[in-house]
Write a structure and sequence with these properties.
The chain contains 22 helices and 29 strands. By secondary structure, the chain is of the alpha/beta class. Strands 10-7-5-4-3-2-1-11 form an 8-stranded parallel sheet. Strands 18, 19, 21, 22, 24, 27 and 29 form a 7-stranded antiparallel sheet that branches.
């Protein structure tokens, strides 16, 4: 998981506690519909069997551990919330870097800094003088499409593109390359693969799924596990391999397009559809499994004993350990982030925790282990599983991170052989949806115009989980071993004797022979990626306008569409002669040119290989397309994909937009207007007027007279629920410009039941006349007592002094890279 921090002007990082532990609510009995029946599930024939020598050693170490030692193994803490010094006292089982956590709070820290930090944590954790066992610390990271937190790493296509490739052996190679680049930094545990079988494409994590078809997911999961960990009986957990974690158990792809939602399905569907990846991933020997944030029929997975213990461990035979998702245990009824025996008793083996209260979690868990709330047998079972994994991973023998065989071999990061695998993956993942008139492949000697905001934008083509959690705040310079799609096209065209010109806005002096337009979704990850409909870019139709401009000029146009899911693009597809679904290809943009640009002989250098692993919608409200249903009627079905050898013509598509009552509640103020269902509320001596930033009247100016308390607020018609976003440490983001400096204290607040605010005066005293961005974590307001499940005013700007402030955007999202704070005075 991942976590946002604020802008560069907020200089001091503040790690926020969840607050004091209050009276615990009584545990809620699970609904009968959420109680699994293990005898209905298969018994798996696992490739990895228990090793008696390992088991004997585990028991010997376990017998020498104190209850304090055992409880420490149950806790993993984000590096932003702990220091190496802490581990001299608290012998925890693991640390992790959340999506936006990094050495020195620098998400662009070079690889040696990651290794140096791990050495410091490891040294502190192994420092003992009491004679009790030294149990090595392990470090977990979300290496979900390459070692994606490390600058310079090879970033492979996201899973949705890999699913289109239909190449299980390629998946194993990608897993091995990812493991090698991860191991080069010393990190020894990857939270991958995601084996969600997504059934609603509105979900912001759709791109992390190989397919909506469980058979495709099952064919890939085991291969990825073997790539990451090595093959049982062969190179299993040898140097260069890292621990794998299959996630998210179970049903995370069935939540109706809502992150951390509720999958309402029968046990048979849960087993036959959503468990597909576990049937191969567990067989391949996956050492850890991550339970989901989501629920099954109303019961949180992290607290579902019938599934975590009864099905996963007892029936399926999983003998590794389960690792929680980011503070997910705090959502189990009767629990908080700092106190959750119910999750351990249900079968969770290790908490994943972020925040200043991890010592409270340790103290509460220790107390409960001593008083029997957590039975001794359950405590020992959890620790035994953690020790077993560390034994099998070679952690006890590995020594200091920097002393390991692959650690420090930074030449592996972005290595040419890994980039070659990634480029092959790009070629194989492209799906040709339309090629009317045979406009593709393009002749290498042509005069080609390359346009669109995604053309020379490695960050956009890589998507979320690319250096930063949401994939935002990055530029091409942050991908030193990457190549943009434009660069790959330019290279191929020049090699063929032609000419390629980059013009993002589509302008040209000489009419080109053909235009390639690269456009699509901008990066996102969970929370911010959820969408109300499948319409591409409903608020901004500039991409469509440019496509139509080319068409009107008689210029053949090839659309290269970047997206983390199938989207309704009928108007854009109608305006293009050829349409390529590139999904999120990662850092090897040259793989696109390999397929689009012919060789000097005019013949394709590579044909299209990809076949849709997700159905493509015919309507923007066609969220669920299940080929098992009698009414299955997509625009393009699973398995669709044209080739040069077997082409086809796509007729004009309907552009009718059905009325849908949906909106993005986290976009509070967009293009000069508050979102539907909300209104602007002014109080006191403050006036508003419309101004221009990027477009006519797309921003507002607020002029505070300074004659007493005044405020500007957004008021919702009905309270909105931002609990998920608060738990995920998203922020309230404001794009602003100060045109008259504040003369008094200025606060930014949220109201819901109670009101809470953060001082932002210091941020507003920066340079006048410059557009900037301010971010305040939602947790600041939650800690102030706001009911985040019923927010009535999600934005309140207050001051008694004079101030003139221009605002172009207000939203709830991940903050840009940098430290986080609850305000600047």
């Amino acid at each position: 998981m991942a976590f946002s921090r604020s802008l560069a002007m907020i200089v001091a990082a503040t790690v926020l506690s969840s607050g004091a532990i209050g009276q615990q609510a009584a545990p809620v009995a699970p609904d009968a519909a959420a109680v699994a029946h293990p005898d209905l599930w298969p018994k798996l024939s696992l490739k990895r069997q228990r090793d008696p020598k390992v088991e004997a050693r585990v028991e010997q170490i376990l017998s020498r551990m104190s209850v304090e030692d055992k409880v420490g193994q149950l806790i993993q803490v984000d590096i932003a919330s702990i220091t190496p010094k802490d581990l001299e006292t608290y012998k925890l089982g693991s640390i992790l870097n959340g999506g936006n956590s990094a050495p020195n709070n620098d998400e662009f820290a070079p690889a040696p800094e990651w290794l140096r930090l791990f050495d410091a944590f490891w040294d502190a954790s192994t420092k003992r003088s009491d004679g009790r066992p030294q149990v090595p610390l392990i470090w977990g990271t979300d290496a979900v499409h390459g070692a994606n937190n490390i600058v310079g790493a090879t970033l492979f296509p996201h899973n949705i593109g890999l699913g289109a490739a239909r190449d299980p052996e390629l998946i194993r190679k990608i897993g091995a390359a990812t493991a090698a680049e991860t191991a080069a930094t010393g990190i020894d545990w990857s939270f991958a693969p995601t084996v969600a079988v997504v059934q609603d494409d509105r979900w912001g994590r759709t791109y992390e799924s190989y397919s909506e078809d469980p058979a495709i997911v099952e064919s890939y999961a085991g291969q990825m596990v073997e790539g990451i960990q090595g093959r049982v009986g062969g190179d299993f957990m040898k140097p260069g391999h890292v621990i794998s974690s299959i996630k998210h158990f179970l049903g995370d792809g069935g939540t109706g397009g809502r992150d951390q939602g509720d999958t309402r399905v029968s046990e048979e569907v849960l087993r036959d559809v959503h468990a597909a990846g576990y049937r191969s991933g567990l067989v391949a020997g996956a050492l850890t499994v991550m339970p989901s944030f989501s629920s099954w029929n109303g019961t949180k997975m992290t607290g579902n004993k019938s599934l975590l213990t009864g099905v996963l461990k007892d029936r399926l035979g999983f003998d590794g350990f389960t690792i929680g998702d980011w503070n997910a245990h705090g959502q189990v009824p009767g629990c908080s982030n700092e106190d959750c025996p119910a999750a351990i008793n249900a079968g969770l083996d290790m908490f994943m925790y972020s925040g200043a209260g991890w010592k409270q979690l340790y103290d509460n868990t220790l107390r409960e282990a001593k008083d029997g709330t957590i039975p001794a047998a359950r405590l020992d079972d959890a620790v035994r599983r953690i020790l077993r994994v560390k034994m099998l991973a070679g952690s006890f023998e590995a020594g200091r991170p920097s002393s390991r065989p692959v650690s420090g071999q930074f030449k592996l990061i972005g290595a040419p052989e890994h980039r070659a695998i990634a480029r092959q993956a790009v070629r194989e993942s492209l799906v040709l949806l339309k090629n009317n008139g045979g406009v593709l492949p393009l002749k290498p000697g042509a005069n080609i115009l390359v346009a669109g905001r995604g053309a020379d934008n490695i960050g956009q083509q890589a998507g979320g989980w690319s250096i930063t959690w949401q994939g935002t705040g990055v530029s091409n310079v942050n991908f030193p071993n990457g190549q943009s799609i434009w660069s790959g096209i330019d290279e191929a065209v020049r090699a063929g004797g032609g000419k390629a010109t980059l013009a993002v806005d589509g302008r040209y002096a000489t009419k080109p022979d053909v235009a390639i337009m690269v456009f699509g979704e901008t990066p996102y990850a969970e929370f911010t990626g959820d969408r109300p409909t499948l319409e591409y870019s409903p608020e901004d139709k500039s991409d469509l306008a440019l496509l139509k401009k080319f068409k009107a000029a008689g210029i053949p146009v090839v659309a290269v569409f970047l997206s983390g899911r199938p989207l309704w693009v009928n108007p854009e597809m109608n305006a293009a002669d050829a349409f390529v679904a590139a999904f999120l290809p990662g850092t090897e943009g040259g793989g696109v040119a390999d397929v689009l640009i012919a060789g000097r002989d005019g013949k394709p250098r590579h044909d299209f290989h990809g076949k849709l692993s997700f159905s493509w919608p015919k309507r923007l409200d066609q969220y669920v397309l299940n080929k098992r249903d009698p009414g299955y009627d997509p625009l393009f079905p699973i398995g669709y994909g044209l080739t040069y050898a077997q082409g086809g013509t796509v007729p004009m598509l309907s552009e009718v937009r059905p009325a849908v009552a949906a909106g993005d509640q986290n976009a509070l103020f967009v293009r000069g207007r508050v979102v539907a269902g909300a209104r602007l509320d002014l109080g006191g001596a403050v006036q508003q007027s419309r101004i221009d930033r990027a477009a006519q009247e797309d921003s507002l100016r607020f002029a505070f007279a300074g004659s007493g308390p005044a405020r500007a607020a957004i008021e919702e018609a009905k309270p909105i629920d931002v609990t998920r976003e608060s738990n995920g440490q998203l922020s309230l983001l404001l794009d602003y410009r100060v045109t008259a400096a504040p003369t008094g204290e200025v606060t930014l607040g949220i109201e819901g039941g109670k009101a809470a605010s953060a001082p932002i005066t210091g941020a507003l005293k920066g340079a006048l006349g410059e557009w900037r961005q301010l971010a305040v974590p939602l947790r600041c307001f939650a800690d102030g007592g706001v009911d985040m499940a019923a927010v009535s005013r999600p934005w309140v700007l207050s001051t008694s002094g004079k101030l003139t402030l221009d605002i172009s955007s207000i939203r709830i999202a991940s903050a840009p890279p940098g430290p986080v704070s609850c305000g600047v005075r």
